[in-house]
Amino acid sequence: MVIKVFVATSSGSVAIRKKQQEVVGFLEANKIDFKELDIAGDEDNRKWMRENVPGEKKPQNGIPLPPQIFNEEQYCGDFDSFFSAKEENIIYSFLGLAPPPGSKGTEKAEESGENEAQKEDNEDAGNLAESQEKNEEEAETATEETKEVTEEGAEGDGEEEEAEQGEEEEPGEEEDDS
Question: What is the 3-state secondary structure (H, E, C) of 40-74?
Fold first, then answer.
């Protein structure tokens, strides 16, 4: 089963290009086999895509815009549905694919409603929170140490200034006495 992603390589719309890049980039990063089919340079691809997007999924003007995603002949969805599936960590079911063999127990994930990516995200979030707390504590400690050093330095400077003033006054006093 090959995922087909219909794109327009010469799209004038920045938004469409970004959406296409996000879909293609995600599939590449996750090593999901797919074929990019250009609708701008190939009339047959454009015609096939437009005919095979279900009626209820077509926009009001009736012309679906890229990217459109299919698993062989079966329609998966457009960018918005892809994005939602990605956010909900159900991308493999969205694409009509079995999760990769490396992922632990898909049955367990379905039972618990949480897959490995979600668990890793939760762990990452926990680690991030811990590291943020640690950084904040270190920043507070550094700030306190800086205050102490500054106060000590200010006290030391004050003593030095008093000593200097005392030295300056002594020669002046001698001159007055003469």
Answer: CCCHHHHHHHHHHCCHHHCCCCCCCCCCEEEECCE
Which CATH entry fits the domain spanning 3-98: 3.40.30.10, 3.40.50.20, 3.40.50.970, 3.40.50.300? 3.40.30.10
Query: Residue 95 corresponds to which amino acid?
Result: L
Q: State the pTM of this model.
A: 0.58
Contact 32, 86 (CB under 8 A): no
Q: At what angle do helices 14-29 and 79-87 cross, to 10 degrees?
A: 40
Sheet holding 74-78, edge to edge: 34-38, 3-7, 68-71, 74-78
What sign for the dihedral angle of Cα 118, 120, 122, 125?
A: negative
> Domain spans of the chain?
3-98, 101-168
Per-residue pLDDT tens digits of the chain, which is 178 residues long: 799 999 999 999 999 999 999 999 999 999 999 999 999 999 999 999 999 999 999 999 989 999 999 999 999 999 999 999 999 999 999 999 999 887 644 443 444 444 444 444 545 445 544 555 555 555 555 545 545 544 555 555 555 445 445 555 445 555 555 4
Instruction: Print burial letters for 15-25: b (CB count within 10 Å at least 16), e (below 16).
Output: ebbebbeebee
